[in-house]
Write a structure and sequence with these properties.
Helix content: 40-55%
Shape: elongated
Radius of gyration: 21 Å
CATH topology of the largest domain: Rossmann fold
Strand content: 5-15%
CATH superfamily of the largest domain: NAD(P)-binding Rossmann-like Domain
Number of strands: 8
CATH architecture of the largest domain: 3-Layer(aba) Sandwich
């Protein structure tokens, strides 16, 4: 097996690295490019991988993950381009960076796949969406899906929908955390201790998500099963309806989509 290179040794880069190792990829076949010397040492010691600060580290890799900040991508691509193998697959996890942007800075014909992951990758529950580039084929997409599968689930969508994907699943964990935070605060207001309120809410969210996943039922069906006419749940849901919580989510996620478009345009 030839090497897999991960360019960017931050939290997400290390998450991908650890996921690949858990899935059975040998540390001997993994290399990390990271500019911070102290981080290079950490990654070597923690995971037993080859790590360095030079772009030449990717020279033997047939797959190269780009896990860098969007604002750093142009400079990173300029450094990497002379060292990439002609047949290397480039998988970008950088938010807002288009396939065209990457392809324009690499050798003609370089296969590129764009990925939008999310932070539950840290616990093996990522929702990743992959989009093909102009030079990527079914084999390239399959490889990207298999590798990203080491940290969660993967689906395909055309790149034109990546801004919507960013708004739904890329930013989505923050919406869930916001709701959980509000539920915990409300529980404390109602007299529960912070510890008990947190345990009740977190397990409730976990249980509800598991029901959605395992039953395959539409959320409206499961919601109705919990809601007795004139009961406590109905009283709570009535407040959400009066406050137009549904509409607020639509507006918020539209704002996230629009900001993703602005960032992609350099705004």
């Amino acid at each position: 097996m030839t090497a897999i290179a991960i360019v960017g040794g931050g939290m997400l880069g290390e998450t991908i690295l650890a996921g690949l190792i858990r899935s059975g990829v040998s540390a001997d076949h993994l290399v990390v490019v990271e500019r911070r010397a102290e981080r290079v040492v950490e990654l070597r010691e923690r995971h037993g991988v080859t790590a360095g600060s030079s772009a030449e580290t990717v020279a033997a890799a047939d797959t190269v993950f780009l896990v860098v900040k969007p604002q750093d991508m142009s400079a990173v691509l300029v450094d990497l381009a002379p060292h990439l193998r002609p047949d290397a697959l480039v998988i970008s996890l950088a938010a807002g960076i288009t396939v065209d942007f990457i392809e324009a800075r690499l050798a003609e014909g370089t296969p590129v796949v764009r990925v939008m992951p999310n932070t539950p990758a840290q616990v093996g529950q990522c929702m990743a969406v992959v989009s093909p580039g102009n030079n990527s084929n079914e084999l390239h997409l399959g490889r990207a899906e298999a590798l990203m599968g080491s940290v969660g689930r993967v689906v395909r969508q055309p790149e034109a929908l990546m801004d919507a994907v960013t708004a739904v699943s890329g930013s989505g964990p923050a919406y869930v955390f916001f709701v959980v935070e509000a539920m915990i605060d409300a529980g404390v207001e109602l007299g529960l201790s912070p510890e008990i309120a947190t345990e009740l809410v977190v397990q409730t969210v976990l249980g509800a998500a598991t029901m959605l996943h395992e039953t395959g039922e539409h959320p409206s069906v499961l919601r109705r099963q919990v809601t007795s006419p004139g009961g406590t749940t109905a009283a709570a849901l009535r407040q959400f309806e009066e406050l137009d919580v549904h509409g607020a989510f639509v507006r918020a996620m539209t704002a996230a989509r629009d900001r993703s478009i602005e960032l992609a345009a350099g705004g």
